[in-house]
Amino acid sequence: MRVDLINTGTELVLGRTVNTHLSYIGEQLFHAGLRIQHQVCIPDGDVIGRTLEERFPRADIILVTGGLGPTSDDITRELTAKLLGLDLHFDASVAENIRGYYAVRNRPFGEGGRRQSMVPEGAIVLPNGYGTAPGLYLPRTERNPHLFLLPGPPRELYPMFEDHVLPQLRAIVGRSKVTSREWKFCGLGESELAEHLEPPLSKIPQLEIGYCAKIMEVHLRCLGEEKALEEAEAVVQRVYPYHLVSDDLRSIEEIVVELLADRGHWVSFAESCTGGMLAHRLTNVSGASAVLAESHVTYANEVKTRLLGVDPVAIEDHGVVSAPVARQMAEGALTLSGADHALGVTGIAGPTGGSDAKPVGTVFIGLASKRAETHVEPCFYPTDRETFKWRTTQRALDLLRRRLLGYPLDEA
Amino acid sequence: MRVDLINTGTELVLGRTVNTHLSYIGEQLFHAGLRIQHQVCIPDGDVIGRTLEERFPRADIILVTGGLGPTSDDITRELTAKLLGLDLHFDASVAENIRGYYAVRNRPFGEGGRRQSMVPEGAIVLPNGYGTAPGLYLPRTERNPHLFLLPGPPRELYPMFEDHVLPQLRAIVGRSKVTSREWKFCGLGESELAEHLEPPLSKIPQLEIGYCAKIMEVHLRCLGEEKALEEAEAVVQRVYPYHLVSDDLRSIEEIVVELLADRGHWVSFAESCTGGMLAHRLTNVSGASAVLAESHVTYANEVKTRLLGVDPVAIEDHGVVSAPVARQMAEGALTLSGADHALGVTGIAGPTGGSDAKPVGTVFIGLASKRAETHVEPCFYPTDRETFKWRTTQRALDLLRRRLLGYPLDEA
After folding, report:
1. Is the reported ipTM for this assembly greater than 0.85?
2. For residues B45 and B73, what is the distance between their CA atoms, to the nearest angstrom?
3. Interface probe with B: pick from A6, A16, A282, most Cβ of B within 10 Å
4. N or C: which end of chain B has fewer CB within 10 A?
């Protein structure tokens, strides 16, 4: 089936807003076994009519985002109805919802509310739980392909897409029993993952697979009926038990917070080159205050010694970016905080500060725990400053995850 | 002039990669006084030919990204030459550059290098400083509009765009003396900014202006000849001297690091609800180690007392999210670190932890300095957890910026 996506919005073509609709909808369509063949981005206004007309004969399904709002440049609904020769009628139940939405915010229903309550004849209303304008689905006729008119703002679009658009798409493609699952892996690359998972996964009938490589993380997506997905889950668990971070879209920081909370454990960080990013990432998770009481950025040598008790002789002998210092930072943070686990990180983020012996990207991660030996490992992430911080924190969080699960700490 | 953008890449329509080309190029075109009328995203392969043919009669300038690489699905160059009936010839100087690029990486020149060295007759080569495939510019003929074939990877595309594409575009539109400038403001909204700047700016002849609202930051862009831009600069400086963060694209954290370094001052943070994001943002700036020696996340009350000396009675009497605690955190961090300035932040990031008296989004920021009175202010940012952290750190960094510059600390 040929799927077209039309994104309308002057702010998109002016470059003021990154268009994330394509990437979001592209990913979502996978869950219905569909893919986009053609996406176009156009300003608000009349051009939407011409674009629809051009694409009608070339697509089986057209998804349009934007232009359903209450202002005068939101004319997707009206232009589409005109193009298809459909009357618009006032829908009392849509109006009811909009009235309720406005009432809570002390705003009048007005002309904008009235326009958003108009529905083309034959259209199926897709409820909007997070805004005013409902989505509209016009099933295929001789005149037009399946046509979905959807709101532009992501916080309105995303829930509507998952709750109301995907079920319609699954019905259209006749694959209502097909669902999808996604696994996140840390500590190995896309090609390595594919090499070891592809042979066993390819033996599972009716299973479609796809990969997505992020920084220091690979996602595997499978599409199929429940039985096939369960077989895939068994393969994944058998081949990569230690690298598998989550099977339900949760991030590594969410997993780490949950593992700590389940065990009633506390963690603390002593960060040098990551400059607070470890604490920042962990505290992005709601509930982090139950597992993190304190964390420290110790940039200066003097602070490493004063706060964490790092031996100045070790700094002198091995350099501040060294395994002994990472060990002492982790162990010092453990003692200072009384936590169950502590990570200590020291390295050279760059772009300056490197040397021949220790180039930019050199980093040592120490993991100390109350009931386990301290683990220290050298890593090397020569890249830009922010990516260096991301990679280092990713590896550090993965070490902590593995320790909490009793897994081996080696990458392999 | 009608400008079209065609982005090719199967990974884009599959949703694996967010297409940032539209937003990047949309912004860049402003600097040449142009805007995109139509953008399309298509998979690798034959469809590029059909798409070009469709758009030729409707555009004056077409920019194509992607499909110039060495692999078999990179066929933009070949399809375009075929479509225009142009011969491809081997360009020795292009080949020379590609050979050099591969040699450094110990990779053979091979068939891929040879294909990337082919140039359609009449094309102007746009050098690629960060990869192999050069860009190609085919000036307008009776057959085709101005046509730019550009590489897909951003690290190759961006420098090429700024160094080689923009000058060509300026020549095409005949506005080679026109340049642009951008100002960043913190502490006021887009509509307020526009209301006060629009009247004086609109009196400057031959000046085009545009706004871009980010979270807790507004950017003003002006386009014109040097004289008009200097007049605009004077207006901005006169109307909003305190809100103006930078006039050269630098971020507020870069400005703060520079201001601290210029004065030989140090800063330290005591973060509760921002969980390390203040330190993380500051340490994204290279050179942060010259202005930040230590920083602390003090989530638990006990840690606020033990490390920063916050009075337990103040926590008991006013609650941990309160002005007195923010003050004591800032002053405690100042004493602990011996720094010249310290920020203390306490608040409720949510989604849980709010109450009627102190709902989610409540936050107090304290700023202590060696040579100034401590400033404490209540803020209210009811939003999601990560945006809350961003807004709070943005306001905190702006307070520090204003103090370093001797500006009033009030929003107004």
Report:
1. no
2. 6
3. A16
4. C
